Amino acid sequence: MSVTDQAFVTLASNDIYCQGALVLGQSLRNHGTSRKLAVLVTEQVSHGIRTVLSRVFDEVIEVSSLDSADLEHLALMRRPELGVTFTKLQCWTLTQYSKCVFMDADTLVLCNVDELFDRDELSAAPDSGWPDCFNSGVFVFRPSMETYAHLLQFAVEHGSFDGGDQGLLNGFFSDWATTDISKHLPFIYNLSISSLYTYSPAFRQFGTDSKVVHFLGSSKPWHCKYNPQTRTVTEGGSPSGHQHLIFTTLWWEIYTSSVLPLLTGLEEIADTEGQEKHRFGGVEVVMKRKNPSPANVQSQPPAQHANPDCLDNPTNKIQSTSSEAGNLEVSVCEPEPVPPSSATYVDIPASEPAPPSSPQSDCEAIFSPDSSLSEPASDTQTWPYSNPDPVPQKSLELGILAASVTELSIQAAEEIEPRTEEERRKWEEGQMDYMGKDAFENIKKRLDRFLQ
Ligand SMILES: O=c1ccn([C@@H]2O[C@H](COP(=O)(O)OP(=O)(O)O[C@H]3O[C@H](CO)[C@@H](O)[C@H](O)[C@H]3O)[C@@H](O)[C@H]2O)c(=O)[nH]1
Ligand SMILES: [Mn+2]
C-alpha cells in the first residue's frame, strides 16, 4: 500500500550527480518502496536529465542555492562557502510530506528500507570518522518551514564546523549523541564503504546485513570504468584506490540495466578508434569496443579474474569471485605485494531475478542466511546477490552493450561555447588562442561534431 505523505528525498546539483540519484531512485524502486521519491535539483541540471529523473522519481523539484528569501540571502552574503550546504537544507521545505528520509545521491539501497519511516527527526547513523557525530548522508526528518528558518539562522550565527551540511546539522541537532538511542540508526543503514577495510572483521561479521551503502569521499562509482561483458570495474583516473568493488560493481549493474535504457535519447557525437561518446544533457557515456564481432564476444570464455589480488589496500583486501550458485563470494584476506598495474577487477555473476517476495521481505531474498557465514574460522563470505527487477535485455542500449562494449565510463560533457564577435575577428586576423579555445583538441571536437 503506497504512503503518499512520506518520501525518500535526494539532491543533485549537476547532471553527473544525477546519475547517482538515478541509481539510488532505481534501487529504491527495485526493492518495492511504498513511499514517494523526490529529487531536489538546481538550475544547472539539464532539461533532458530532468525528464529522465521524472521517470524514476515522483517529484523533481527545482531548488535554488541562492533563494530569494531574505534570510537566505543574508546568510549566503555573510557565509558564501555554505552555498551547497544550504541547497541540502532546503529538504526541510518539502512540507507536502509529513516525514522524509534524506539520502545522498551517492548512496544505494540493497533492500527495502521503508522501516526507516518508523523513526523520528533527527535519526541518523554514526559517522565512521567521528562516531559521536552523525553522518548526514542518510537521515530521517520532518519537513517544517519553522525548522528550516531555525537552521538558516543557526548557520548565520554559528556556521558549520566542517564547512558542509554535516557540521551544521550536527551543531543544530547537537543532542543526537546522548539524548535518545532510538535516533541512532544502525550503521548498516549508512555503511560507509571505507569501513570495508578500516574494520574488516566487523564487515565480515555484520556486512551481509547491510541495507544502505554510502560511497562517501571523493571517489564515486561513476568515476570508475565498467566492463559490461565481464562485469568488472576498473579504477579510472582517480588517485585513491577503490576497495569496495563489490558495491561499485552493483552500482554499475543497476546503471547499465535500469538507468542507461532510460537515456534512450542518447545523442551519438563521435565514434573514433572504437570509442563512442553518447551525450545526454551534461553527461557523456563513453563506450569502447575491443571485439566488434559479436561472434568473437560469444566465444569468449567465462569471466576470469584478470587481476584478483590487485587491491592496493595497506591493511587488508577484499576479493570477489563468482560461485556456482550465482552468488558473490566475498573474502577478506591479508595484504599481498601490490602488482605494478593500477587496474582493479572484480567479477560479478549474472544477476538472477529474485523470487517473488513482498517488499518488506526482500532483504531476506537478497541476504539469505548462509552457512559459511556462521563459521568464524572461514575467511570467505557468500554474498547472495540479485537485481530483482532488471530491465529486459532486449532494450536497444543493452543489446549494444552485450554485443561489443568492453568499457563504459561517465564523464561531464564539455561545453563548446560559440565564438564571440571579438574572438571571430581575432581568428580571422590570424591571432589564434592556441592555448585555449583554439587548442588542437577543441578544434578537433568541433570538426567531429560538424562531420557527424
Ligand atoms: O556537487 C555536488 C556535491 C554534492 N551534491 C549532493 O550533496 C551530497 C553530499 O555530497 P557527497 O559528495 O556525497 O559528500 P560525501 O562524500 O558523502 O561527504 C560527507 O560530507 C558532506 C558535506 O558535509 C555531506 O553532505 C555528506 O553527507 C557526508 O557524507 C551528494 O550525495 C549529492 O546529493 C550535489 O548534488 N552536487
Ligand atoms: Mn555522500
TrEMBL record:
Source organism, top-level taxon: Eukaryota
Requisite cofactors: Mn(2+)
Catalytic reaction(s) noted: L-tyrosyl-[glycogenin] + UDP-alpha-D-glucose = alpha-D-glucosyl-L-tyrosyl-[glycogenin] + UDP + H(+); [1,4-alpha-D-glucosyl](n)-L-tyrosyl-[glycogenin] + UDP-alpha-D-glucose = [1,4-alpha-D-glucosyl](n+1)-L-tyrosyl-[glycogenin] + UDP + H(+)
Broad class of where this protein is predominantly found: cytoplasm
A GO CC term attached to the entry: nucleus
UniProt subcellular location: Cytoplasm; Nucleus
Annotated InterPro entries: Glyco_trans_8, GNT1/Glycosyltrans_8, Nucleotide-diphossugar_trans
CDD domains in the record: GT8_Glycogenin
Gene Ontology molecular functions: glycogenin glucosyltransferase activity; metal ion binding
Pathway: Glycan biosynthesis; glycogen biosynthesis
Keywords: Cytoplasm, Glycogen biosynthesis, Glycoprotein, Manganese, Metal-binding, Nucleus, Phosphoprotein, Transferase
Compositionally biased region (Polar residues): 293-302, 313-325, 369-385
UniProt region (Disordered), positions on chain: 291-394
Pfam families: Glyco_transf_8 (PF01501)
GO terms of biological process kind: glycogen biosynthetic process
UniProt similarity note: Belongs to the glycosyltransferase 8 family. Glycogenin subfamily.
Function: Glycogenin participates in the glycogen biosynthetic process along with glycogen synthase and glycogen branching enzyme. It catalyzes the formation of a short alpha (1,4)-glucosyl chain covalently attached via a glucose 1-O-tyrosyl linkage to internal tyrosine residues and these chains act as primers for the elongation reaction catalyzed by glycogen synthase.
Stated name of the protein: glycogenin glucosyltransferase
Organism: Microcaecilia unicolor
Organism ancestry: Eukaryota, Metazoa, Chordata, Craniata, Vertebrata
Gene designation: GYG2
